[in-house]
Amino acid sequence: MAGTGQYAEILDGDVFKYYSEGEWKKSSSGKSVAIINPTTRITQYKVQACTQAEVNKAMETAKTAQKSWAKTPLWKRAELLHKAAAILKEHKAPIAECLVKEIAKPAKDSVTEVVRSGDLVSYCAEEGVRILGEGKFLVSDSFPGNERTKYCLTSKIPLGVVLAIPPFNYPVNLAVSKIAPALIAGNSIVLKPPTQGAVAALHMVHCFHLAGFPKGLISCITGKGSEIGDFLTMHPGVNCISFTGGDTGIAISKKAGMIPLQMELGGKDACIVLEDADLDLVAANIIKGGFSYSGQRCTAVKVVLVMESVADALVDKVKVKVAKLTVGPPEKDCDITPVVSESSANYIEGLVKDAEQKRATFCQEYRREGNLIWPLLLDNVRPDMRIAWEEPFGPVLPVIRISSVEEGIHHCNASNFGLQGCVFTRDINKAMLISDAMETGTVQINSAPARGPDHFPFQGIKDSGIGSQGITNSINMMTKVKTTVINLPAPSYTMG
Fold first, then answer.
1. 316 and 237, same structural domain?
2. In angstroms, rounded to a whole number, what is the distance separating the alpha carbons of residues 159 and 174?
3. Which stretches of the chain score pLDDT less than 70?
4. Residues 233, 311 within the same domain
5. Are residues 311 and 180 in the same domain?
6. Of the candidates 482, 483, 479, which has an alpha carbon nearest to the alpha carbon of residue 159?
7. Which of 159, 168, 80 is nearest to 124 (CA)?
8. Comparing C-alpha atoms, which of 136, 17, 129 is closest to residue 75?
9. Which of 170, 186, 239, 442 fits a disulfide with 158 by CB distance 3.0 to 4.6 angstroms?
10. Confidence at residue 496, expressed as pLDDT on a 0 to 100 scale
């Protein structure tokens, strides 16, 4: 169970502690933040409501610890990351239990997230040793007008303190995707987990604690974003911010100052279906892409743009598959589980009501009980409906019928988002032309959008983000180039 056995140290009464200076601590505020179980809609856990003074202390110790960590050999950093990964995978059950109860993620998927996270940490350790162990050597006579009198040596050095802010839907995996690259690159890390998912993140951090990382190198600060959010993101001790979430990231980017930013802020991922597509393949991917984890994924299919001539056939195939989706609590591994909060459910319902008023075709009856919303396919959606443009983050999927490929591309590119998209066709030449035309960070051909495998580049354009993720890109983003130039008294040519 959460907070027991290996994890007993992180719990004080019924409130989970925060992590700073290598210790599990109670906040001096004497306050806690409640975490509501999306299924039962009652308080499941409580975490510390940290103060600004405690943030300051974490930043101070992170800065000090980073200076020593940067002098730690690469192989030693990697060794500790491998150790943390092994502990994470060995003690996955309590973390998975937290995911079930905090964010209503199906039990099987919760275990998968923890195991995947351990694999990510290990891969990052290996990749970091490779790419950080290499530098560049340049000679001056490669540029016109110069003799070989200068040798230039370049290497990658850490940025300092990295602030990591993961989202509720992957509070473990998208935390370690920031933590591991930061650490292997020689940075320290301050983690601000989402409220929903905070306890799972605290359990994950304890695995790094047990691995023996130096005190102060890793901190995990819990609390209300309204009280410490801006204080964290605008803190002068922060040298880099890696954020995954919603439009809060836009506000952060405007306030953060001159530091590197890595941000993924959601998407309205379009699925363009051509007349020659394998409709069985399309239907299967629409179900997987649109409804897994109740549609609460940045890379979920958010709108289907299908050629009119095959729309009826595709909708019929998807309707059959939707009818087979199981709906219920995450403990029973249902396909559709409650969305994360009542406010999320209300927002989704608002989009549905708008579509209903504007006469979209409901392929299923709209049904909601508390935070649980039954899967819904909306056909004959038009651009004047909110659901055509807004990200529902729930199990509701709009279908827009198009008369040309150009119409589909236009709708995709008219969105303020640009995370991912997909195209289904048997013609690879058409697929490549459409991919080039789509204004998104990634285009999947004949498969639903997806983040991963975790070493693949992952990025968005427009309001979907800044920078690129993926293990290698994250390591590079969390370093800067250092150059040393050796000046020779006279030109020197090898074997000259």
1. no
2. 20
3. 496
4. no
5. no
6. 479
7. 80
8. 129
9. 186
10. 61
Q: Is 220 exposed, middle or buried (0-12, 13-18, 19+ CB in 10 A)?
A: buried
Residue 57, CA atoms < 13 Å, CB-side half-sphere? 17
Say if CB 380 and CB 399 are below 8 A apart: yes
Neighbours of 206 (CB within 10 A): 26
Residues 6+ apart with CB under 8 A from 8: none
Per-residue pLDDT at 297: 97
205: Cβ–Cβ under 8 A, 6 or more apart, which residues? Answer: 19, 191, 218, 220
Cα–Cα distance between 272 and 425 in angstroms, integer?
9
Structural domain count, the chain: 2
Residues with a known catalytic role: 264
Same domain, 253 and 306: no
Query: Residue 463 is which amino acid?
Result: D
CA–CA dist 325, 93 (Å, integer): 26
255 and 282 fall within a common domain: no
Tallying the residues shown for the chain, one arrives at: 496
For residue 162, what are the contacts with CB-CB under 8 A and spacing of at least 6? Answer: 178, 182, 187, 188, 189, 190, 238, 239, 240, 241, 242, 478
pLDDT digits (tens, 9 = 90+) for 341-383: 999 999 999 999 999 999 999 999 999 999 999 999 999 999 9
Cα–Cα–Cα angle for 107, 111, 115, rounded to 5 degrees: 170
- pTM above threshold 0.85: yes
Whole domain around residue 194: which residue ranges?
5-265
Q: Are residues 245 and 332 in the same domain?
A: no
Residue 467 lies in a domain: no
pLDDT digits (tens, 9 = 90+) for 10-65: 999 999 999 999 999 999 999 999 999 999 999 999 999 999 999 999 999 999 99
CATH of the domain at 416: 3.40.309.10
Pairing of strands 420-424, 270-273: parallel
